[in-house]
Design goal:
Blueprint: H1 2-18, H2 30-36, H3 42-62, H4 73-80, H5 83-86, H6 90-96, H7 101-122, H8 124-138, H9 145-167, H10 170-178, H11 180-186
């Protein structure tokens, strides 16, 4: 269950960095979704790990809120491509750290989705049990409607993360596994 909480926290970080689509927009930019499932190279990951602290600091300093609901992680990835327009000077700071914004955000998307996939793989048995338990509890008439709604939302989020995990290239998962200790420190997942 602790690992499921960690997966939820990963989702929160994704929400914090990616944001929701602007009001009135329902279409997800395909480019962002496609980029998240592209091939991640060793060199790209190395540059990303060096640049990520700079991006995180600049985004936090900006005071901008990049939040949204927990409905579609892929839509957040698509929206992440424009964060540099919301945070003044972000591209320049990232370029000074060795990776322009146009290189950084696809590396973030690929690394993020691969990290979720690795965590999902590690916790698949426990997650499947958790999903089965939630489904079972949804049929219990003693559980209040408000609690059932929260359970449905959690189940939906787990199913969405499983779909995402299944689409990630195995090479990306392997590279992320190789650097797992560094990435967990980078993403504050210790």
């Amino acid at each position: 269950m602790k690992k499921l909480l960690l997966l939820s926290l990963l989702s929160v970080l994704l929400v914090a960095f990616c944001g929701a689509p602007p009001e009135g927009e329902t279409e997800v930019p395909t480019k962002g979704v496609d980029v998240a499932y592209g091939k991640l190279s060793e060199g790209e990951l190395q540059k990303f790990m060096k640049a990520f602290p700079v991006a995180k600091e600049e985004i936090e300093k900006s005071g901008k809120e990049f939040g949204g609901d927990n409905e579609n992680i892929e839509s957040w990835i698509g929206q992440f491509a424009t964060v540099n327009k919301e945070v003044a000077g972000l591209d320049a700071k990232l370029s000074a750290a060795g990776m322009s914004w146009n290189e950084f955000w696809p590396a973030f998307a690929k690394t993020w989705t691969a990290s979720i996939a690795v965590m999902m793989t590690k916790e698949m048995g426990e997650m499947e049990e958790g999903m089965a338990e939630i489904k079972k509890q949804l049929d219990d008439p003693k559980i209040p409607a408000a609690q059932k709604e929260m359970m449905k939302a959690a189940l939906s989020a787990m199913e969405e993360m499983k779909k995402i995990s299944d689409k990630v290239p195995q090479e990306n998962k392997d590279i992320v596994k190789k650097h797992w200790d560094e990435l967990t420190k980078l993403f504050d997942m210790d």
